Amino acid sequence: MPLQTRLALLLAVLGATSTGCAIYRRPLALPSRETPYVAVLSGAMPEPITMVARHGWIVANLDKDKPILRYELLGGASRSTTNDPFRSFASEDVALHGVMKGDRAKIAKVVACLDVETPRYNEEHPTYFPMPGPNSNTYVDQMMRRCDIPFDLPATAIGKDYRGVVGASVTSGGTGVQLETWLGGIKLGLTEGFEVHLLGLSIGVDLWPPALILPVNPGRLGFDDR
Asked: What is the domain partition of the chain in residue ranges?
């Protein structure tokens, strides 16, 4: 049986299974504008890949009197401002994957890092490939690892595990390591659990919070990301 057929059958089975299971998702709510924060979000991609792919971005709030900053790769990685951090070009299925709160100096340090690393990303990755990457999720994952934003994108954020032809790194959550090739890889972490990656698709077990990692949206069955 061809590999493409096997993957299609696997996705169909997992999708059917997921419809009968609950996922306890984090509420889609950000702190008040009085609170400095950095947050990681994603939205489901439009048809025909809605069930198997998501697009990620980062938002940062430093000052209630100024617009929220938004870091995203659309054509190229860039910083913009927004009054709607939940806006998604893809669909209404937007998820929040973590919020880092702190004093203004702490969040300003993260923002300064994002401002430095965003143009560096464009220099390092002048090309774009939807699968396995580099793409918009590769950018978000790299920003999280380089700027100490300790969250994880969901399994369906294809491109988050791209490390080139062969590469290794700490996980974006900061408690594990992963080894990746262009075709596949593995991730192992104290909280991230164990994942196997194949052509950008992920399957595995998350240890904390407990969940099954699946290559269909929302990317996990069980409790939402920490």
From this structure: 24-222
